Amino acid sequence: MSKILKPEGLTGIGGTELSPELMLHLGRAAAQSLGRTCNHPPVIYVAHEPRRAADPLEAALCAGICSGGGNVHCLGMLPPSALSLILSAEDAEAGIALTGGSLSYARVCVRFYARNGLPMSAEQLDAIAALMAPEKTPPLRSHQHIGRIFREEDARLRYVRLLMTRLSQPGLPRQGARKLKIALDCANGAASAAAEKLFAELGAETVCIRKTPDGMNINDECGADDLRSITRCVKDNGCDAGFAFDGGGGRCIAVDSTGEVHDGDRLLAILCADRLARQKADPALPRTESMQNGAAVTHLTNIGFLRYAKAQEIPVTVTQSAPEFVLETMREQGLALGGDSTGYLYFSDMPAADGLMTAGRILRVMQETEKSLAELGAVMEHDPQMRLSVRIPQYWREIWKNDPEISGTVSRIAEELGMDGRVHVRERSESAVIDILLEGRDFKHINQYAMEIAEVIGQRAAVIAEDM
Question: Both 190 and 336 in a single domain?
């Protein structure tokens, strides 16, 4: 696999680590690589989040694509999932999103999508990366073969229409049903372009906040990572529920009318329960609309959901947390749903996690059942979780796993928790940080256990540093 391009994207500080020069070469290589597999100028869709560096980076990317003989269709400010969805429904060779999700405004991630809307394969990315080497770069296109740039002014409406086709049935509000009042926190991000339009189409009254991006306020004390704004908005405006998205529009975390948080696991349980109810009412329901094949979850999924799934006889497949693993598992096993506590939820009829689709489907369940979000969320018991992160020296990466004091502490705590909890300790792939996740019925105990593991890791890192 290329060291430059990976399925999860190329991430860096916009303008420096991800410079316009790099984007120019990246766009040219992408167009030249894709052009080898078709007998016409390759068509590439480009979308971006409202990040400060997005405009110049997009301009350089488009210039590179054109210089490589490709045609660019600029969709404007849209979530990467919107690009993915539009790409899957239309005829183009590829898509490129300038995203960042929950990252700060300074960081940008370049993600490549294949013509089916799914992340590009490692082989496709390797082919693009190979053409970025100076000695392997094909000559530039001459003036009569240089590509063109098309500005798609209606991309937002096309995105909303595609979402509505998937949300139209089931879940239509009953005749005379009360109109629900919904709060939306767009995190000053990509969801700002379409959230209000979608929920108006769904028949809800909306109160939308954090919807005025300026390139620097994305994810700033708002959105899925900071629920204070959406919680206040729900209470102050007497809303039935609130949905908070991240800057990229892929995540969705909900808050009910009492202010209680419903993370991705609870939302997934609500959607599973809805499909089970419809499956019971109509045994002939297509397998893709039922829970017969189960759901894909990750190691971040709450034990409470696993207990719920077991009690309801829902098959569950546990996979790694990266989107490509969840999506691949769903495709291979024909699963209806996937996701975890982070709020990234996946559907069999969507090529990527989409926060607006998640919120829209939860709204549909509320409309059809005439139940509150609090009532629906009670379908599963949510076990407390404790998460900590410990930074370690760069040279100690991977090596810490062989430290007997650390492994012994983790094993002892796992044994003490038994079937009533779990402990998960892993190193981040992109940085020298160890993430600690503990879960159990008693928050006091798991908090103590998490602190103990973090302390042992910190002490051992200090000892190793002294010995160096």
Answer: yes
Do 134 and 195 lie in one domain? The reply is: no
**Location of structure tokens 């991309």:** 155
- Which value, to the nearest 10 degrees, does the dihedral of the CA atoms of residues 161, 162, 165, 168 take? -70
> How far is it, in rounded angstroms, from Cα 35 to Cα 39?
7
Average pLDDT, the chain: 91
pLDDT for 460 beyond 80: yes
Tokens linked to 400: 């810490």
The per-residue pLDDT for range 232-280, each reduced to its tens digit, is 999 999 999 999 999 999 999 999 999 999 999 999 999 999 999 988 8
- pLDDT the model gives residue 281: 86
Same domain, 275 and 367: yes
Residue 299 confidence (pLDDT): 85
Taking a C-beta distance cutoff of 8 angstroms, is the pair 210, 176 a contact?
no
Strand order in the sheet with 316-319: 316-319, 295-298, 337-339, 345-347
Bridge partners (DSSP) of residue 293 are none
CA angle 324, 329, 330 (to 5 degrees): 100
Question: What separation, in Å, do the N-terminal and C-terminal C-alpha atoms of the chain show?
Answer: 33
Q: For residues 29 and 243, what is the distance between their CA atoms, to the nearest angstrom? A: 39
**In the chain, how many domains are there?**
3
Give a yes or no: residue 136 inside a domain: yes
Other residues' Cβ atoms within 10 Å of the Cβ of residue 426: 14
What one-character-per-residue DSSP string does 275-342 give? HHHHHHH-TT--GGGSSSS-EEEETTS-HHHHHHHHHTT--EEEE-SSHHHHHHHHHHHT-SEEE-TT
pLDDT surpassing 50 at residue 171: no
Q: What pLDDT does residue 84 have?
A: 97
In a domain, 4, yes or no: no
Give 88-137 as a DSSP string: HHS--SEEEEEE-TTS-TTEEEEEEEETTSSBPPHHHHHHHHHTTSGGGP
pTM for the model: 0.90
Least confident among 130-144, 348-362, 439-453: 130-144
Angle, helix 303-311 to helix 264-281, in steps of 10 degrees:
10
Question: How many CA atoms lie less than 13 Å away from 83 in the CB half-sphere?
Answer: 32
Q: Using 50, 70 and 90 to split pLDDT, how confident is the model at 186?
A: very high
